[in-house]
Design a protein that fits this description.
Helices cover 28% and strands 27% of the residues. The chain is of the alpha+beta class. It has a single domain, classed as Aminopeptidase (3-Layer(aba) Sandwich). The protein has a nine-stranded mixed β-sheet, sandwiched between helices. Strand 1 and strand 2 form a beta hairpin.
């Protein structure tokens, strides 16, 4: 699929603004994202330190390094014929959010178990899109995560997995997956640092896509 038009809501004005969804990012695209995101993360960290904000309030994805993830993905060449895909949302000539997904070795846990699904390894938005009340930061854009998750669901559909999706969530993101995404929280996974594991089954995928 070539990039296609979408919109994002600019929080400061409430207006919808032009954006593009991409379902075939390259490793170079990840490096481009990290080039812009890393300095912004440093500024976030400086602001939290200056205000002596407690550690539990810091963004839990602050330490993610998409350049390092690109290095790890190099042997797998993400793309249409790989088990890995990279999705992104672009506006104002910048990557506003990216998602890494895979389609092998992650069977469903919801009944009936053992079926294929798309697993979301990582999804994040640009640091300027984080809501950080502790330092007075409002997001620049809203609606990024839902659109990226939708791309992953549609990939699942294209693969014949009927929209089934799975992921382990950072604690700060659990409400997003339970609420807007409508996923089932299967509880803390002792094999994944006690992160909660979420799944989207076929019926939930249809609801998400507005087909029910």
């Amino acid at each position: 699929m070539s990039p296609h038009a979408t919109t994002l809501r600019r929080v400061a004005t409430g207006k919808q603004e032009a954006a593009e969804l991409h379902d075939a990012l390259s490793l170079d695209d990840l490096l481009d994202a990290e080039t812009l995101w890393a300095p912004a993360k440093i500024q976030v960290a400086k602001a939290f330190l200056a205000r002596s904000v407690a550690g539990e309030q810091w963004p839990q994805s602050l330490h993610w390094n998409w350049a390092e993830k690109a290095r790890g993905l190099k042997p797998y060449a993400p793309g249409p014929f790989s088990s890995y895909r990279l999705f992104g949302l672009r506006a104002e000539a910048q990557w506003q959010g990216v998602l890494l997904g895979s389609c092998v070795a992650h069977p469903t846990r919801l009944s009936p178990g053992g079926q294929d699904l798309v697993y979301i390894d990582f999804v994040d938005s640009a640091p300027w899109n984080w809501a950080l009340p502790a330092i007075g930061q409002i997001p620049r854009f809203k609606g990024i995560g839902v659109q990226l998750v939708e791309l992953a669901i549609r990939w699942s559909v294209d693969l014949g997995f009927r929209g089934r999706l799975g992921l382990h969530s950072l604690p700060q993101s659990e409400a997003f997956y339970r609420g807007p995404c409508g996923m089932t929280d299967l509880g803390a996974d002792p094999k994944a640092h006690a992160l909660h594991y979420f799944e989207l089954d076929e019926s939930q995928a249809r609801v998400f896509l507005g087909e029910d």
